[in-house]
TrEMBL record:
Residues of the signal peptide: none
InterPro entries listed in its UniProt record: Hemerythrin (IPR050669), Hemerythrin-like (IPR012312), Hemerythrin_metal-bd (IPR012827)
Protein name listed in UniProt: Hemerythrin family protein
Annotated ranges, domain Hemerythrin-like: 11-127
Any Pfam family hit: Hemerythrin
Organism: Clostridium thailandense
Gene Ontology molecular function, alphabetical: metal ion binding
Source organism superkingdom: Bacteria
Amino acid sequence: MLKWKNDFEIGVDLIDSQHKHLFEIGNNAYELLKNDLYLDKYNKIILIIDDLRQYTKYHFKCEEDYMLKTNSPEYIIQKKEHDGFIKKIDNLNLDKIDEDQQKYIEDILSFIFSWILDHIIQKDKLIKKQSI
């Protein structure tokens, strides 16, 4: 489970609130991983992936619009990374979920949290820095 910290804030309220929601999606995956009441988690995994796919598309559009509005020199780099993230989500092999559902959730968690943390801390902080 990952807790939101003020260190993750980039100083743009809309983007910060959206980042918090991305943490919630990751934490939903974590809760599913730890939940032993579900013997078959396939449908729940699909819901988390769909939520992640839809929300990141919305979030990335907002972030990119903000960067264009503020003439951020980070736009092209960010756009490429955003497109890569979406491509990876779109190309997830859903047929592999049932091979080992717990491992699949762990892999999703690792991907979500490492990407989000790296991206927010390393890249998104530059958005605000450049727009000031």
